[in-house]
């Protein structure tokens, strides 16, 4: 049973049942204990994927060194999630003075009010217990944050109500930083803080104390400070002041998932697809993930802004939703996404990246379609490295065409695909069993068609009508990249739009 008074707390401390230690030592010692008992292959920070060999070891080194540290990375690199995971390294609960705004230690209070209570109540002073979740304070830095928000200020109303002089220490109003006393204080997007606010952090980082307004009283705070920032802003030419950089112990770079497998694990962990009976084929998951990888390499997309891991998460949710819409309209019991559903999910892509000038000319939708096509081509090559699709392509080259769209029921798609020589046999190599349900077989056929289109072995219209590959054409002169070029197909005389 936990002590309920200062007398019981003092007795438990003397007997070794309760530990009192600075928060950096607490986090360090709990980390050491966790590492000693960690199972092989287990992660120190569950839910953080892809950092076990890169970022996590550097965070561990910073904690073992008792450093305040900063995570530098582009958006969507799990910086905030990693900082919040640090709360698991805090003790389950700590003793505090009841009602204290800064969670004072009953055995060593630092604020004037708590010191007065200890003097007046002595060993009879009640003890409250603060859970670890309440010991994490997070602030998103914005230019309008004031020094009073961060550090504190005097409170004239409090002074008037208690008939106190403004010079009295008990008239202080504590900011977020003092309220994180004996815990972890995280500031996201640190460079967005005004310069004078950054100066206000000097003392706490170096000497471990803060001074509010002009009071001669200093508060010796016990806090682990962690930060996040974009590397573009965290430079001498950016919005960070050099003396503040000098006081932060470790600077740790984050990154996007290095492999498609890691990225798929993150998306599967975060995406909401639990809606009835959903069966997402592996090639659809891979294509969704590859969209983000291709977008990060696309020269028309701003590399400094980055392409967040939220893109494939939102994209997969939208892809499943489009498949759900089709299943509802067709009366199908199983929701099976197809590659064409990715094109229907453009709204989940276009808002997740910033375009360079050339991309602005081309348009976000067109850039997104180019990225999807490149992603499908890459995934298709992995599934069919040496496949022979001559039967399929010859059928289209001889004048055959196949009309499908993202609302076409699976049974109807299979019926139409049956006319295409070799298509059903080619789809069998996509990892879908021959006797699989119709929606899965339809998804495999759709994958083959989109893969051949992505590799320019067949062509299709914007209405998803597949036909033979177009003959090579000479690039028109003096035509802006963003325009849609129209060319009359030889021997047919029909108009069709192509992206240049």
Topology at a glance:
Layout: H1 6-14, H2 23-37, H3 55-64, E1 69-72, H4 79-84, E2 93-96, H5 112-121, E3 128-131, E4 136-140, H6 147-150, E5 152-154, H7 156-161, E6 172-174, H8 176-179, E7 183-188, H9 195-199, H10 202-206, E8 209-211, E9 218-220, E10 223-229, H11 242-247, E11 250-253, H12 260-270, H13 282-297, H14 310-330, H15 340-344, H16 347-350, H17 357-362, H18 364-383, H19 390-397, E12 402-403, H20 410-417, H21 423-427, H22 438-454, E13 458-460, E14 465-468, E15 484-488, E16 495-499
Parallel strand pairs: 1-10, 1-11, 4-7, 7-10
Antiparallel strand pairs: 2-3, 5-6, 8-9, 12-14, 13-14, 15-16
Verbal overview:
- The protein has helices spanning 6-14, 23-37, 55-64, 79-84, 112-121, 147-150, 156-161, 176-179, 195-199, 202-206, 242-247, 260-270, 282-297, 310-330, 340-344, 347-350, 357-362, 364-383, 390-397, 410-417, 423-427, 438-454; strands at 69-72, 93-96, 128-131, 136-140, 152-154, 172-174, 183-188, 209-211, 218-220, 223-229, 250-253, 402-403, 458-460, 465-468, 484-488, 495-499.
- It has 500 residues and is of the alpha/beta class.
- It has two domains: 19-253, P-loop containing nucleotide triphosphate hydrolases (Rossmann fold, 3-Layer(aba) Sandwich); 260-499, no CATH class.
- Strands 4-7-10-1-11 form a five-stranded parallel β-sheet. The chain has a three-stranded antiparallel β-sheet with strand order 12-14-13.
- Helix 12 (260-270) packs across helix 14 and helix 13 crosses helix 14.
- The longest helix has 21 residues, at 310-330.
- The protein starts with 5 loop residues before the first helix and ends with a strand.
- The model is unreliable at 474-500 (pLDDT under 50).
């Amino acid at each position: 049973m936990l002590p309920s008074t200062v007398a019981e707390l003092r007795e438990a401390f003397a007997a070794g049942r309760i530990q009192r230690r600075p928060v950096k030592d607490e986090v360090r010692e709990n980390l050491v204990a966790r590492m000693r008992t960690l199972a092989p292959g287990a992660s120190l920070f569950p839910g953080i994927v892809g950092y076990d060999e890169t970022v996590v070891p550097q965070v561990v080194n910073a904690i073992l060194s008792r450093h305040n540290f900063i995570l530098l990375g582009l958006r969507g690199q799990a910086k905030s999630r990693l900082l919040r995971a640090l709360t698991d390294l805090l003790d389950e609960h700590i003793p505090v003075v009841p009602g204290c705004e800064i969670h004072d230690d009953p055995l060593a209070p630092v604020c004037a009010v708590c010191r007065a209570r200890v003097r007046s109540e002595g060993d009879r002073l009640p003890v409250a217990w603060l859970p670890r979740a309440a010991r994490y304070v997070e602030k998103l830095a914005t230019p309008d944050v004031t020094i009073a928000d961060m550090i504190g200020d005097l409170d004239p109303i409090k002074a008037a109500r208690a008939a106190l002089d403004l010079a009295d220490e008990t008239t202080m109003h504590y900011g977020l930083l003092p309220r994180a006393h004996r815990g972890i204080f995280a500031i996201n997007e640190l460079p967005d803080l005004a310069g004078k606010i950054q100066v206000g952090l000097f003392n706490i980082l170096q000497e471990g104390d803060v001074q509010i307004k002009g009071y001669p009283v200093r508060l010796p705070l016990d806090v682990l400070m962690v930060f996040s920032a974009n590397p573009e802003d965290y430079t001498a030419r950016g919005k960070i002041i050099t003396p503040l950089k000098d006081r932060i112990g470790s600077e740790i770079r984050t990154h996007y998932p290095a492999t498609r497998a890691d990225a798929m694990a993150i998306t599967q962990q975060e995406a909401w697809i639990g809606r009835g009976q959903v069966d997402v084929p592996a090639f659809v998951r891979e294509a969704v993930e590859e969209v983000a990888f291709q977008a990060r390499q696309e020269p028309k997309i701003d590399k400094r802004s980055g392409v967040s891991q939220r893109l494939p998460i939102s994209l997969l949710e939208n892809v499943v939703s489009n498949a759900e819409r089709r299943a509802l309209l067709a009366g199908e019991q199983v929701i099976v996404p197809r590659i064409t559903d990715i094109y229907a999910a453009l709204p989940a892509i276009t808002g997740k990246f910033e375009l360079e000038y050339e991309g602005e000319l081309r348009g976000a939708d067109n850039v997104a379609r180019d990225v999807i096509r490149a992603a499908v081509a890459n995934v298709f090559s992995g599934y069919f490295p040496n496949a022979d699709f001559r039967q399929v392509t010859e059928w289209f080259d001889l004048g055959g065409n196949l009309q499908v769209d993202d609302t076409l029921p699976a049974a109807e798609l299979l019926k139409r695909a049956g006319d295409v020589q070799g298509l059903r046999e080619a789809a069998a190599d996509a990892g879908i069993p021959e006797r699989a349900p119709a929606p899965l077989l339809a998804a495999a056929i759709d994958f083959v068609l989109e893969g051949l289109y992505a590799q320019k072995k067949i062509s299709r219209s914007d209405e998803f009508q597949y036909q033979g590959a177009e003959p090579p054409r000479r690039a028109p002169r003096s035509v802006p990249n963003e325009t849609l070029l129209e060319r009359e197909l030889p021997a047919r005389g029909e108009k069709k739009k192509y992206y240049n």
